[in-house]
Amino acid sequence: MLFRTLRPALSLLILLTLLTGLAYPLLITAVAQVAFPVAANGSAIADKTAVTGSALIGQAFAEPGHFWGRPSATTPQPYNGLASGGSNLGPNNPALLDAIRVRAATLRAADPAQQAPIPVDLVTASASGLDPDISPAAARWQIGRVARVRQISPAALTALIEQHIVPRFWGLLGEPHVNVLALNLDLDQRFPVAGTPAPAVR
Asked: Contact 104/123 with Cβ under 8 angstroms?
């Protein structure tokens, strides 16, 4: 009697477990791999030999021969997805103002000849603290430093940046931007510098 009472419930439990716990995830995974293979695999960016990172998460570039991205708001490891969270501070918050001054001083020290105003995205972190992109203006602001270290013409770097500008989605949504990892990988391949470390997997 007890078994006859429990049998429908157990049968339904097993059926739903197979459907929602096995069949459905396998189906969605298969569809994603066919329809959106890049996104389904983490939007990975690779060079000629290996995956070097994701187009969705920034990396810490500090070498003067590389383009630098937005500051990371995660500590102690920059661009740590496990530590991502709201990084927004009010415009009158002394901590924000102090951080901006330090970041601006670092940028100025790395390229004293660059006297143009610093684009805001080079001294402020994104809301998540993981932003992998910078504005075209932020990339162009760094041309002098990178060109001097790599001993190449600014015009060559300008052309490289233009090739990496992602326009507005459908021409309407978002802002034009440049993925820093993709730009630096292309930079290393086209204009290598002896002893310049390649971007690391993060």
From this structure: yes
